[in-house]
């Protein structure tokens, strides 16, 4: 990531934590944050993660569990049925 000034320290820290989660191993950073880090064309405030793999309900549950464990009380997760 070459243009770290394109994102806040908090967003970069969040991305690094997410990259370490086994359930997100098939996901890649996409969208505006990816472009902002590569081109420094604007500040970015969100993360878009995409996977070419089929995740399924079990995969979503694993992601939810790992994110909840990694971030604890600092995050509010939507119910999977609502996604």
TrEMBL record:
Pfam families: AbiEii
Domain of life: Bacteria
InterPro entries: AbiEii
Protein name: Nucleotidyl transferase AbiEii toxin, Type IV TA system
Species the sequence originates in: Filimonas zeae
UniProt lineage: Bacteria, Pseudomonadati, Bacteroidota, Chitinophagia, Chitinophagales
